[in-house]
Design a protein that fits this description.
It is a single chain. The protein is globular, with a radius of gyration of 12 Å. A hairpin with a 2-residue loop joins strand 4 and strand 5. The protein is 31% helix and 36% strand. By secondary structure, the protein is of the alpha+beta class. A five-stranded mixed β-sheet has the order 1-5-4-3-2. The protein has a single domain, classed as RelE-like (YaeB-like fold, 2-Layer Sandwich).
């Protein structure tokens, strides 16, 4: 599955500490290869068709699958992720 990051997600990754950003990217790539069952930190979003959230510490990665593409729509702190 091909992975695509939206503009907001890229901006957030560039502002993060490099170690945290690389950990998030590694989990996203692993999800793209193996699916949601590969991590306990990845769960389907309620009410969102093909939407998932990935948990990395106090950060949440919101993503969805469209066709053969995994789209990372947002990376936000836990308190702001679901607003």
């Amino acid at each position: 599955m091909e992975t695509r990051y939206e503009k907001q997600a890229v901006k957030t990754l560039l502002k993060m500490p490099p170690k945290l950003a690389s950990a998030i990217q590694a989990k996203v790539e692993d999800f793209a290869l193996r699916g949601a069952k590969s991590h306990a930190d990845i769960k389907p979003l309620q009410g969102a068709l093909n939407g998932y959230r990935l948990r990395q510490g106090s950060w949440r990665v919101l993503m969805y699958v469209r066709g053969d593409e995994l789209i990372i729509s947002a990376i936000k702190p836990r308190g702001d992720a679901y607003k």
